[in-house]
Amino acid sequence: MKALRSAASLFALAVLVAVMACAPGGPGEDATAQLHDIFAREWQTRLAENPFQATSVGVHDYNDQLPSVDPEDLERRDGIWRGYLAELEAIDRAALSEEDAINLDMLHAQLADRTAGYSFGSYQIPFNADSGFYSGFARLGFNMPFRTTKDYENYISRMEKWPAYVGQHIGNMRLGLERGFTQPKVVLTGIDQVMDTHIVEDATASVFFKPFAEYPVSVPESEHARLTAAGTQAILESIVPGYTTLRDFMVEEYMPNGRESLGATELPNGADYYRQRIKHFTTLDLTAEEIHQTGVDEVARIRAEMDEIIAEVEFEGSFADFLEFLRTDPRFYPKTAEELLKEAAYITKTMDGKLPALFKTLPRLPYTVEPVPEDIAPKYTAGRAVGSPMGSTQPGRYWVNTYALHTRPLYNMEALSLHEAVPGHHLQGALARELGELPNHRRFSYLSAFGEGWGLYSEWLGLEAGFYKDPYSNFGRLTYEMWRACRLVVDTGVHAMGWSRQQVIDFLAANTALSLHEITTETDRYISWPAQALSYKIGQLKIIELRRRAEAELGEAFDVRLFHDAVLLNGSIPLDVLDRQIDRFIAEQKATA
Predict the structure, then answer these.
(1) Which of 454, 490, 460 is nearest to 295 (CA)?
(2) Rounded to whole angstroms, how far apart are CA atoms 256 and 391?
(3) CB-count burial class (<10 Å; 0-12, 13-18, 19+) for 469
């Protein structure tokens, strides 16, 4: 890696000289014009280097291509990002407006994060316990447009490139194996099953065949047979071999040689790596010890509220007995997948009717409720919001996991639905994409502490909206909040304090009403995705803190609809930037009043 970094440094210098030579600048050049020129050029570079992102934001110039993760291209790309960083650092920040200063800071943070990820070799672990490049690629048929013959040809071209893309990732994972930079062996069980679902003998049984099952009227019927034949060939000669190669590599090489240790601090340069992951996911300079103690304090607070509900329902027995009752009583579990999906749909539609009272600005993009795809459901989380490509005719999606119904309690559904759909991730994400006045690097960014903090805040907002009237549902809300508080304890525990996997499982089982299946899948997620789990509670605590500040400062003049606009209409921003934005909102509201 030292030689790689040295080469990267030399390449970065060359790229910087070239980029600066082409960039506007010089004495007297307007700082704002310089900055926005950088924004435009960096964005075009970003899309050219990542065709998947280009497709997702509605730019279809690269729809027949896949990104390269070849080491030489990764090194070249790192040099480009460092060149843009140098350009940003040469801007006279004091000459910018407050908004453009934020724009600069956010692009700088994105680029610095990218270069840090490269320097740590994060590309050598391109997956976690519940998802990775291989599961993301399986969504290709949902994420591309299919309106013209060319759209289908682009899709086929991408499928044909899959084996080479797999080969690049395998090469990078082998580099990780050589230096001990791998996922822990304990979280790898079942990973091969994800690949198995795509190794089919009949192309029509593949998820990749779906676009060929029904053509839009805009594709001439005379083209259908040719496209279907080409698609079938691509599935059988590219998709299946690619997943077969990946499965064989995972089973024969990666899984037997995954590391025995769990914590990120056990990786090469692990302490610095985990510190960088904390900053990446929380957007704040916090230590593992600070976060751990915040989690311990929150667990104690939430536990007291849980005890009050146990007393309210007059349950006789210990806290552990009550959790066992919730996990095992059939009344709390759906009998069919349809029942679970209908419950999710009813909750979200009810919340739709309450949104105008809570939000002044609402997005136009609708959403639907669907089951988590079968090929990823066994190791997937309980639910997730999935966006639609820009310019497509598809809605947003609220995925609900219908796998293993005996582990999907109904008392959690209000909290889950408010978090993932509305007023949570769908509302926040769809609204951000409609903020056309923001630079693209902000409009299409997602910062976990902001996004997941908003999702958890949305669960809490359900109290104000009249949800959780049933005490068991309110306990479900608290167990979801407890779950996120526990994450602060267990993530720092396993990655910085030497906790074992069983310690994490036991802590979650003792403090939440999550099913043991979900506890196990979540534990492996935290182990395999250092610091991501911290973002939820850290973000929620900040948003609630800012709301309380605004309520105290504005008194009767406080309007929750305007407050929510102030939080959401800047897109996904770091928590310290959000803090300053709410102070500005308070000052503006005082002046108006």
Answers:
(1) 490
(2) 44
(3) exposed
> How many C-beta atoms surround the C-beta of residue 448 within 10 A?
21
Q: How far apart are CA 27 and CA 22, in angstroms?
A: 15
Contact 398, 385 (CB under 8 A): yes
399 contacts: CB under 8 Å, gap ≥ 6: 370, 371, 372, 373, 383, 384, 385, 386, 420
pTM over 0.85: yes
* 22 CB burial (10 A radius; 0-12, 13-18, 19+): exposed
Please state the φ and ψ torsions of residue 130, each to the nearest 5 degrees: -115, -5
- Please give the backbone phi and psi of residue 384, each rounded to the nearest 5 degrees, phi first: -160, 145
Confidence of residue 4 (pLDDT cuts 50, 70, 90): very low
- The secondary structure of 463-518 as a DSSP string is HHTT---SHHHHHHHHHHHHHHHHHHHHHHHHHHS---HHHHHHHHHHH----HHH
Rounded to 5 degrees, what are φ and ψ at 47?
-70, -40
Alpha-helix residue ranges (DSSP H) falling in 374-447: 413-420, 425-433, 440-443
Query: What is the DSSP annotation of 529-541?
Result: STTGGGHHHHHHH
* Distance (Å, whole) CA 547 – CA 557: 13
Q: Which residue bears the tokens 């600070």? A: 290
> Whole-angstrom Cα distance, residue 451 to residue 432?
11
Helices 560-568, 575-592: axis angle to 10 degrees equals: 140
Specify which residues 184 forms β-bridges with.
Answer: 259
Q: Can you list the positions of beta strands (E) in 240-387?
A: 367-371, 383-386
pLDDT, tens digit (0-9, with 9 covering 90-100), for 242-263? 999 999 999 999 999 999 999 9
From first CA to last CA, the distance across the chain in angstroms is 59
| Residue 477 to residue 309: CA distance in whole angstroms | 11
Q: pLDDT (tens digit, 9 = 90+) per residue, 424-436?
A: 999 999 999 898 8
DSSP letter for each residue of 76-129: HHHHHHHHHHHHHHTS-GGGS-HHHHHHHHHHHHHHHHHHHHHHHTGGG--B-S
Supply the angle between the helices 535-554 and 288-312 in degrees, to the nearest 10: 80
Q: Which residue has the tokens 């004495």?
A: 27
Over range 331-350, report the average pLDDT. 98
With a cut of 60, say whether residue 523 has pLDDT above it: yes
Report in angstroms the alpha-carbon separations of 548 from 79, 351, 553: 44, 23, 9
Cα distance between residue 172 and residue 167, in whole Å:
9
Q: How far is CA 264 from CA 209, 401, 467, in A?
A: 39, 29, 39
Dist. CA 184–CA 129, nearest whole Å: 10
What φ, ψ does residue 259 adopt, rounded to 5°? -70, 150
Amino acid at site 509: A
Question: How far, in Å, are 67, 185, 194, 195, 492 from residue 254 at the CA level?
Answer: 23, 9, 15, 14, 26
Kindly report the backbone phi and psi dihedral angles of residue 389, in degrees, each rounded to the nearest multiple of 5, phi listed first: -60, 145
pLDDT digits (tens, 9 = 90+) for 11-23: 444 444 444 444 4
